[in-house]
Design brief:
Lysosomal amino acid transporter 1; L-lysine transmembrane transporter activity; single chain; mainly alpha
């Protein structure tokens, strides 16, 4: 049952109760705390760019569409990998949130792209943007909630990619999630190149939030320490 630490000798009870993960010493607890802080950094990273977009109104010129698509592709594959690896609800909800944040940012890009070319036809664009945003948020949230509910809450899973049994015959159940995670990493890395080129071509970073990249760098650093 939840809270049973028989599979995790000397494990932290609150970590098992809240995250269903095994933390047997202070090093494990520190890893989990650093991982949670890194998630917070990633989750908060998009908000400064949202503000910057609304403030300057030139998001379509400041950011590269390939940079946004690369992030969205990486987060979508991360979400797919969390389904394939049968990860914990917290991990699935986090992956869903990342996809939602990417969709909002991509929607803002398209919004200002159309608005800056529309010649003043603003109201229909605003209405369409609101309806499309609500539709995307509802659809992705529904998918994430359904996947998390389908989880077996009474079984200790941990991170499936790290807990696959070595004596299982045939392909590992984590093969698909590993492949999606690898492609996701490539997309994350390559997505920076178009943005660097855009900044170089414009000879300016106006409209690009410094805090976006600062929080992502901090999140990656904390995640590395957590690992």
């Amino acid at each position: 049952p939840p809270g049973n630490i028989s599979d995790c000798p000397n494990g932290s009870r609150w970590v098992m109760d809240v995250f269903n993960e095994c933390a047997q010493d202070s090093r494990d607890v520190a890893s989990i705390v650093l991982g949670l802080v890194s998630i917070f950094c990633f989750a908060a990273a998009s908000f400064p760019q949202f503000y910057q977009a609304c403030k300057t109104g030139i998001m379509d010129r400041a950011l590269s569409i390939y940079f946004l698509l690369g992030w969205l592709g990486g987060d979508l594959l991360n979400l797919i990998g969390s389904f394939l690896a049968d990860q914990l609800p917290l991990q699935i909800y986090t992956a869903v949130y990342y996809v939602l944040a990417d969709l909002v940012m991509l929607s803002l890009y398209c919004y200002y792209k159309v608005k800056n070319r529309s010649g003043g036809i603003v109201t229909p664009i605003n209405v369409a943007f609101v309806f499309l945003s609500l539709g995307m948020v509802s659809a992705v949230s529904f998918l994430g909630r359904g996947a998390a509910v389908a989880q077996d809450p009474v079984t200790f899973k941990g991170r499936s990619l790290l807990s696959a049994r070595v004596d299982e015959l045939g392909p590992s159940p984590g093969t698909g999630s590993f492949a999606s995670g690898s492609i996701s990493s490539v997309l994350y890395l390559c997505s920076r190149v178009p943005q660097i080129y855009t900044n170089y071509k414009r000879k300016s970073t106006i409209g690009v939030s410094y805090s976006l990249f600062a929080l992502v760098m901090l999140g990656n650093s904390l995640y590395g320490l957590s690992v």
